[in-house]
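Risk register update: the risk that structure generation would not scale has been downgraded. Supporting records follow, first protein first.
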Amino acid sequence: MHSDGSVWVRNSTSWTKLDDNIKTKAITANGNVYQWRSDGSVWAYAGKGLHSWTELDANAATIKLSTTYAHL
């Protein structure tokens, strides 16, 4: 994650941008990529290019994002 909110993934020879949302506050990955935004919403990367995210939760009270090997 860059300071401008962009999220990148390393492929075998290059970097691919997954998102450029300025609300990105944190990301975590465990085989899947999850994004926490400053409005408290939590998103999962759907794997279909830039801006391919599915909202999992929209709770403004969310204060932390963490994953284990198999679970968010």
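Supporting record for the second protein:
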Amino acid sequence: LIVVVIIMIKMFVEIDKKAGYLQIPYLLWLVFASILNLSIIILN
């Protein structure tokens, strides 16, 4: 999912830079959620 969002952001930036940059918080949230899920899996 993270890879797809990075590709989406690159495509958005080509069309409208502002729209692409507004997707960066979504990418950061996905990274945070992935790290959180991985840490929970490791602890269990």
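The chain has one domain: 2-43. On this basis the risk owner (M.S.) recommends closing the item.
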